[in-house]
Amino acid sequence: MATILVLNGPNLNLLGQREPAQYGFTTLADVEQLCTDAGKRLGFEVTCLQSNHEGVLIDAIHQAGRGVKDGSVLGVVLNAGAYTHTSIALHDAIKGAEVPVIEIHISNVHAREAFRHHSYISPAAAGIVVGFGVDGYVLAIEGLVRKFHKS
């Protein structure tokens, strides 16, 4: 059974307590359970990782790329948090690892501050889910499976 990697970037460990008007009261543990359940329903194992450190996310993307090549990984669902708007390194990792990535944002970043309107991840992503709250993770997993699973 192939694995789907769900990566969460900086400050997403604070879900449920950080700006609940923007992000709601759902915790990261709740999100991870939601993703695991969605994966199981679709016949995939889901592995979740959160880090506040860019290099850890890059290493995980590199490893996922190797997994895509050997068939053990289907792809990545990535909420890069603020790194979305700053990290050329994450963009380069996605391109270099040749890993299918679905970019996800809990809030509608385009309805927020202007600096959030640009994503370095989007040009490297296979798809983007924005503004559906934590349900966007399920939509991203479903989209990844529909687009890349060869049944």
Structural account:
It contains five helices and five strands; from the N terminus they run βααβαβαββα. The protein is α/β, with parallel strands linked by helices and 151 residues long. The mean pLDDT is 94. The protein has helices spanning 20-23, 28-42, 54-70, 88-97, 135-148; strands spanning 3-8, 45-50, 73-79, 101-105, 127-130. It has a single domain (3-148), classed as Dehydroquinase, class II (Rossmann fold, 3-Layer(aba) Sandwich), CATH 3.40.50. Helix 4 (88-97) links the parallel strand 3 (73-79) and strand 4. The longest helix has 17 residues, at 54-70. It is globular and about 40 Å long. Helices cover 40% and strands 19% of the residues. It has a five-stranded parallel beta sheet, sandwiched between helices. Substrate binds at residues 79, 85, 92, 106-107, 116. This is 3-dehydroquinate dehydratase. It is an enzyme of class 4 (lyase). Keywords: Amino-acid biosynthesis, Aromatic amino acid biosynthesis, Lyase. GO terms for molecular function: 3-dehydroquinate dehydratase activity.
Q: Architecture in CATH?
A: 3-Layer(aba) Sandwich
Global geometry: globular
Structural class: alpha/beta
Find the CATH superfamily.
Dehydroquinase, class II
- The CATH topology comes to Rossmann fold
> How would you write the strand order of the largest sheet?
2-1-3-4-5
Strand content: 15-25%
Secondary structure tally: strands = 5
How far from one another are the termini? 12 Å
Mean pLDDT: 94
Q: What is the string of helix and strand elements? A: EHHEHEHEEH
Radius of gyration: 14 Å
Estimate percent helicity.
25-40%
Number of domains: 1
